[in-house]
Design a protein that fits this description.
- The longest helix is centred in the last third of the chain and has 22 residues, at 216-237.
- Helix 8 crosses helix 9.
- The protein is α/β, with parallel strands linked by helices and 295 residues long.
- Helices cover 38% and strands 23% of the residues.
- The protein has a 5-stranded mixed sheet. Strands 11-10-9-12-13 form a 5-stranded mixed sheet, sandwiched between helices. Strands 5-6-7 form a 3-stranded antiparallel sheet, covered by helices on one side.
- The protein is built from 10 helices and 13 strands.
- Helix 9 (252-265) links the parallel strand 12 (241-245) and strand 13 (278-280).
């Protein structure tokens, strides 16, 4: 039995995963605004407490951590969404839980999980995108997760879409994730509808459904920017299909079909395609937890 942890920008999820990729038990913690000011001790304490409790019930062999950032030898070199750099989370959690620990980028974890356990009809080459607080990415080629030489790479969220555009946490301006992440869409809706930034996910989706006409301009702009970013990726990778994970899945009814149409009919693709297969990640938000436990 393994424990998988998905550390996100707004919450951390911990799950016990069996050898077939099934989550047996799952726990989640949402961060308060105050906790976000000094997040890592909060996250580490939470993981340690849950894991040490689980050890009393299960025989845990390994702890796998999914982190939104660049990882090397278990060290988080940079995570713009968690606001940390050169952070040795492996060493910390190894000492607090007494388990062997591995750390991998969250989008890469999710992509591996989708390939191994996903219910979608995947082919061997697929592009994986997480559209959540930021944008993460991975490319599975002939069943293998591709990786760069010095770093993991595939940081699709930090490809510049609009030079001189919105300042990104990574230090550049106009990054794709500042236009295409679901957080960006949600924040625009919250602002226009005069809602609180603390609003719950279900309440926000409800407010959006009731005010579709009023926020149509936000939907249109988001869709165009998302299609532009994804078209660049299609032109580079020519994937068999695209799988999208992250909070975007909760808004697929708004965007999935229009996104396909925009991509196929707006002259964005270098090579003509008759069809474009874009699916929502079948493992949903559990993909990160499961993928973190795959060695
Ligand atoms: Zn960036």
């Amino acid at each position: 039995m393994n424990v998988g942890v998905d550390i996100g920008g707004s919450h951390t999820a911990v799950g016990v995963v069996d050898d077939n990729g099934n989550i047996l038990e799952q726990f989640e913690k949402d961060y308060t605004q105050k906790e976000k000011e000094n997040l890592m001790p909060v996250v580490e304490n939470y993981i340690t407490e849950v894991v040490n409790n689980l050890k009393k019930i299960y025989k845990i062999d390994h702890l796998g951590i999914a982190v939104p950032g660049t990882i090397s030898d278990g060290i988080v070199l940079k995570s713009v969404n968690l606001g940390i750099c050169n952070y040795d989370i492996l060493k910390i959690l190894q000492s607090t839980t007494g388990l062997t620990v591995s750390v991998r980028n969250d989008a890469k974890c999710a992509a591996i999980a989708e390939y191994k356990y996903g219910r979608n009809d995947y082919k061997d080459k697929f592009l994986f995108l997480t559209l959540g607080t930021g944008i993460g990415g991975a490319f599975i080629y002939n069943g293998k997760l591709l990786s760069g030489t010095n770093y993991d790479g595939y940081e699709f969220g930090h490809m510049v879409l609009k030079p001189g555009g919105i300042k990104c946490n990574c230090g550049k301006s106009g990054c794709f994730e500042k236009y295409g992440s679901i957080l960006c869409f949600k924040q625009k809706c919250i602002k226009k509808l005069g809602l609180s930034y603390e609003i719950s996910g279900p309440d926000l989706r409800n407010a959006i459904s009731k005010n579709m006409k009023y926020i149509q301009d936000i939907i249109d702009v988001y869709l165009k920017d998302l299609a532009l970013g994804i078209s660049n990726l299609i032109n580079i990778f020519e994937p068999d299909n695209i799988i999208i994970g992250g909070g975007f899945a909760r808004y697929d009814y708004l965007f999935l079909e229009p996104l396909k149409k925009e991509l196929l009919n707006s002259g964005l693709l270098f090579n003509n395609r008759k069809d474009l297969k874009i699916d929502i990640a079948s493992l949903g938000n559990e993909a990160g937890i499961i993928g973190a436990t795959i060695s």
